[in-house]
């Protein structure tokens, strides 16, 4: 589908007179015929405007996802609604990065948890044993 507004250098909300003037100036006879059949008839223009909005939204979504047409499609009718890729990180990629970071922290904790748990248990047991031994020794020495 051609973007008739783009090809005629018009805004989608252009007046009927602006469309007539742009069509009259158009050097391409096929484009002129398409524009006259589509934009000159109000019912056809309403349908085209709804479709134009949907296809423009799809083009914006494709750009947000970093999708573009291949080099052999550049400049073709299929590329009318394509936008350059959006280099901002998508919310999905941001979420994946955050989850990956959390998983790496968890894995690091799992790796060190075993040895430190044994050291902690040994130290606690030794401390309890020492305290119990001192208490027992003091208790026997007094009695």
Task: Give a description of the structure.
With 143 residues, this protein is an all-alpha fold. The protein has two domains: 4-79, no CATH class; 89-143. The protein is 70% helix and 0% strand. It is rod-shaped. The mean pLDDT is 83.
Task: Spell out the blueprint of helices and strands.
Layout: H1 4-7, H2 16-25, H3 29-39, H4 42-64, H5 91-142
Helix pairs in contact: 2-3
Question: Could you tell me the mean pLDDT?
Answer: 83
Number of domains: 2
Find the structural class using helix and strand composition: mainly alpha
* Unreliably modeled segments: none
Helix-strand sequence: HHHHH
Shape: rod-shaped
Number of strands: 0
Q: Biggest sheet, in brief?
A: none
Number of helices: 5
Rg for CA atoms: 36 Å
Q: Span between N and C termini?
A: 102 Å
Helix-residue proportion:
55-70%
Measured by DSSP, the beta-strand proportion falls in under 5%
Descriptors for this entry?
0% strand, mainly alpha, 143 residues, 70% helix, 5 helices
Give a summary of the structure in a few sentences.
It comes from Vreelandella zhaodongensis. The protein has 143 residues and is mainly α.
